[in-house]
């Protein structure tokens, strides 16, 4: 199905269903997903007209390019050349990069990117914005058919919308396959939708298991749990004297979904079957929710405040020594050893999230990428920038200066990177990147996520059984998918 969105006098052709477009509109005008949680945004109104065409199917492949040269350049993904990113003719061109940076011109990234200009002669204008305004800025630009953005930061949950919504170029056949193979599985997976590469991997990220070594030792536990069965048994020993074995960000939000994703795949489940039908109400999906309910309500080894906690609440409680184990992103580790922020300095460790059965480990990914906008007037220069971001020099700088973990697998054995690892955890952190799993990143994910988060939370509260909660969620998601074909 085709839907024409007309903003002012400039059309943008989006591929997808009425359902997906309404979900897209919800993103624009209702609220936009934070990296881990929600925040409502206000977006200036635009006059929009919906023109529906023939019906299509969800996840039916990439949108075809509808731009006549994307701003008059005559350049599409099919004409971009990875081997011509050093072409002297690119010197003097200017590209605009939209990034979530907090310090504007003072951001360390500005100085880092200056190296690219020195090397190529291509000027880069960093258009800094806070993360919560990022998606709104991108979609507003695309809907107005503006050419003001060339490269944009892309969160993993936007990959499907960027491709199906015709916002970004499909880089599947632009970035060579041998280059794509150089990146960590978690980072390349996070910028891929239905087998199509939507962005250049920028940094690697997953959740990890953190534990308080002192508390485990006092409980007679000599190693961190490797399976969810071990985690449960250890939790019973660790919960005592005002200390809970674990705490989680299980309030009704995106953070609840991230933890559920880790457990679904950890128990060998999947969200959708090979036919694209929701399947998280059986197998590992059901086992995961039953497990969550049991450790919270039956074993009582989870801090009950978890039902209202955000991710930052969890890490604060762990830093205060009130929790023995948590699941958290790699960026939290330095703060645990900062005496101004933590009372557990030198008492914690980090490693693989547990698995179950034949599953070694599973953790939700949080990796991001940089996408090349469809409407860019300087696509070859923008591609040169993406190539540079994916190379060793820049990624080393990102790790040293900004603390972002590289996407290049080879860097995790690089002496320079190892020397820069002040926490001495790089090996433990990077191992998890081989066991990352994405949230469903198809168009409309936001609505699917809302549906699932509400039903998961009701199960945790004891208002529904795990079976009923997931069956209800599946029915609602199936209905949303069915509506998309009308």
Tell me what you see in this structure:
The protein has 486 residues and is α/β, with parallel strands linked by helices. It has 2 domains: 83-205 and 367-437, Periplasmic binding protein-like II (D-Maltodextrin-Binding Protein, domain 2, 3-Layer(aba) Sandwich); 207-364 and 444-484, 3-Layer(aba) Sandwich (D-Maltodextrin-Binding Protein, domain 2), CATH 3.40.190.10. It is 37% helix and 15% strand. A hairpin with a 4-residue loop joins strand 3 (32-33) and strand 4 (38-39). Residues 1-73 have low confidence and may be disordered.
Rg value: 23 Å
Could you state the oligomeric state of the chains shown?
single chain
* The CATH superfamily title of the largest domain: Periplasmic binding protein-like II
Supply the number of helical segments.
18
User: Mean pLDDT, nearest integer?
Assistant: 85
| Helix proportion range | 25-40%
Largest sheet, spatial ordering of strands: 7-6-8-17-11
Global outline: globular
Secondary-structure-based class equals alpha/beta
CATH architecture of the largest domain: 3-Layer(aba) Sandwich
How many domains?
A: 2
Number of strands: 18
Would you identify the regions where 5 or more consecutive residues have pLDDT less than 50?
1-73
For the largest beta-sheet, the strand count, sense and barrel status come to:
5 strands, mixed
User: What is the name of the CATH class of the largest domain?
Assistant: Alpha Beta
């Amino acid at each position: 199905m085709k839907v024409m969105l007309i903003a002012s006098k400039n059309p943008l052709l989006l591929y997808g269903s009425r359902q997906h477009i309404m979900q897209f509109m919800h993103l624009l005008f209702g609220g936009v997903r934070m990296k881990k949680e929600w925040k409502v945004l206000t977006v200036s109104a635009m006059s929009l007209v919906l023109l529906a065409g023939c019906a299509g199917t969800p996840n039916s492949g990439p949108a075809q390019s509808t731009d006549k040269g994307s701003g008059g350049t005559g350049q599409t993904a099919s004409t971009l050349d990875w081997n011509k990113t050093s072409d002297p003719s690119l010197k003097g061109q200017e590209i605009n990069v939209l990034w979530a940076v907090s310090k504007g011109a003072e951001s360390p990234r500005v100085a880092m990117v200056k190296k690219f200009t020195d090397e190529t002669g291509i000027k880069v204008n960093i258009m800094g914005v806070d993360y919560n305004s990022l998606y709104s800025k991108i979609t507003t630009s695309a809907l107005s058919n503006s050419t003001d953005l060339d490269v944009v930061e892309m969160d993993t949950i936007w990959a499907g919308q960027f491709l199906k919504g015709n916002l970004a170029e499909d880089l599947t056949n632009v970035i060579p396959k041998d280059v794509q193979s150089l990146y960590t599985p978690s980072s390349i997976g996070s910028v891929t939708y239905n087998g199509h590469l939507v962005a250049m991997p920028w940094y690697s990220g997953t959740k990890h298991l953190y534990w308080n070594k002192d508390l485990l030792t006092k409980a007679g536990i000599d190693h961190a749990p490797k399976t969810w069965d071990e985690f449960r048994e250890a939790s019973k020993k660790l919960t005592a004297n005002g200390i809970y074995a674990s705490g989680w960000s299980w309030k009704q939000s995106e953070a609840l979904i991230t933890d559920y994703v880790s457990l679904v795949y950890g128990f060998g489940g999947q969200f959708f079957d090979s036919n694209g039908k929701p399947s998280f109400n059986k197998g590992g999906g059901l086992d995961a929710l039953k497990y969550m309910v049991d450790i919270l309500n039956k074993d009582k080894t989870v801090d009950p405040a978890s039902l209202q906690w955000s991710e930052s609440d969890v890490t604060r409680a762990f830093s205060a020594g009130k929790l023995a184990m948590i699941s958290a992103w790699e960026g939290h580790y330095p703060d645990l050893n900062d005496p101004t922020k933590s009372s557990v300095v030198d008492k914690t460790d980090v490693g693989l999230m547990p698995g179950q059965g034949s599953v070694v480990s599973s953790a939700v990914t949080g990796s991001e990428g940089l996408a090349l906008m469809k409407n860019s007037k300087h696509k070859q220069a923008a591609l040169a920038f993406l190539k540079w971001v994916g190379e060793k020099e820049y990624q080393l700088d990102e790790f040293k200066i900004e603390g972002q973990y590289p996407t290049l697998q080879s860097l995790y054995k690089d002496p320079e990177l190892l020397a820069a690892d002040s926490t001495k955890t790089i090996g433990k952190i990077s191992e998890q990147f081989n066991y990352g799993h994405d949230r469903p990143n198809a168009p409309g994910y936001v609505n699917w996520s809302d549906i699932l988060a509400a039903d998961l939370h009701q199960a945790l509260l004891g208002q529904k059984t795990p079976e009923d909660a997931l069956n209800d969620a599946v029915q609602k998601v199936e209905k949303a998918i069915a509506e998309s074909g009308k």
